[in-house]
Each structure stands twice: as structure tokens, then as C-alpha cells.
Amino acid sequence: xxxxxxxxxxxxxxxxxxxxxxxxxxxxxxxxxxxxxxxxxxxxxxxxxxxxxxxxxxxxxxxxxxxxxxxxxxxxxxxxxxxxxxxxxxxxxxxxxxxxxxxxxxxxxxxxxxxxxxxxxxxxxxxxxxxxxxxxxxxxxxxxxxxxxxxxxxxxxxxxxxxxxxxxxxxxxxxxxxxxxxxxxxxxxxxxxxxxxxxxxxxxxxxxxxxxxxxxxxxxxxxxxxxxxxxxxxxxxx
Length: 238
Prior knowledge:
It contains 7 helices and 2 strands; from the N terminus they run βαααααααβ. It has 238 residues and is mainly alpha-helical. A two-stranded antiparallel sheet has the order 1-2. The N terminus and C terminus are likely disordered.
């Protein structure tokens, strides 16, 4: 068969679904699609709920959770999930179009992250409070650093002439792996924010545990997407 053409009976999939019967396989596919749709909704919901809680404009600090949730919970998540074929609204677009949109989301992420970081610094300076004294702030700095490094790596992938052709596949793998690390760091940072005095003064009881699930579920979906995409591929042939 000519290169680039596949028989309709050959289905390429990752090793995650190996060993399933046809019925179980399609059930697994639909569950994955529902999970991706749920991840989209949860990432948006977390931004909306955070904005309601922080009441942006009431203080300098109030803009910090809004900017950070918009950047790391929404833009970072959407920038990864748009490559998914399982329930993404961009699944019918070409890869070139997806890469451009991925860069748009990551650029907004960096702007939101820098803005949120600036509001936090300004708020603490006005109140004359020390900086980087909590686990949340230290994790936030590590997340920002990892995100900036990921953006630099992405520049080389966007302009492959800057690197050798032999390094491109390896750099793409590193970009995906380190991107997962950056995303998990962002998730841990968001969760650590829920243990701060500010958040626990506003959210208590059962609602607090619901908030805890909102960043965790998208993280599981993103982790599954990245690991599945880079696991060795196998084929089912009937």
C-alpha cells in the first residue's frame, strides 16, 4: 500500500487500550471523549469560580488568582487539549492550525502569569510583607520558570532551522515531557493555593473538596493524552 495510505481495517492506537475487545475498545474511546469534554468544562469552571471568589478590582491581590487561573488553569489546559482527537472542539483543524493556536494560548499564559506575579509582588510591597515565604509561592516561582523554559523550547520547534534536523524529534519528545512536568507543577501550585488562609477563609466544607477536584481531573486527562501520544504505537488488524 502506498505511503501515507492506511486500510480502513487498520486502527492505530496507543498501548493504553491494548487487550480490549472491540466493544470494550469503543466504550473506552467514548469514555476518553467524555473525559476530555469534562476537562474543558472544569478548567473554565475553575476560572469562573475563582473570579467570583476573588472579586477582581477590590484590591491588588484580587487580580492575582484571576490572572493565574486564567493562564494556568484555562489557557495551559486548552493549549494541550486542542491536540486531542477525543472531544476537542479543534479536532477537525489541521496540525499547523493547532500549533498556531497552541502558541496563542501559551502566549496568553505567559502574559497572565507575569501579570498575576506582578500584582502579587505589588500587593506584598504595599503591605510590607516578605516575599516567597510559603510553599505556594515557591511552587509558583518553579512553575513560572518551567513555563518560560518550555516556551523557549517551543521557539526552537516553531523554527526548526535554528537546530539540527537530527535533534528535532528528540526535542519534540523533551518538549512534551517537560510540558507535562510544567503542567503538573502548575496543578500542584493551584492545589497548594487551596490551603492558604485566603482561600480557606472563603471556601470550607464539601465545596472545598469539589474545588480540589477541579484542577485534578484535567491534570489526569492531560497526563493520559501526553503519555498515550508518546507511548510506542501498535496496530489492531482484523
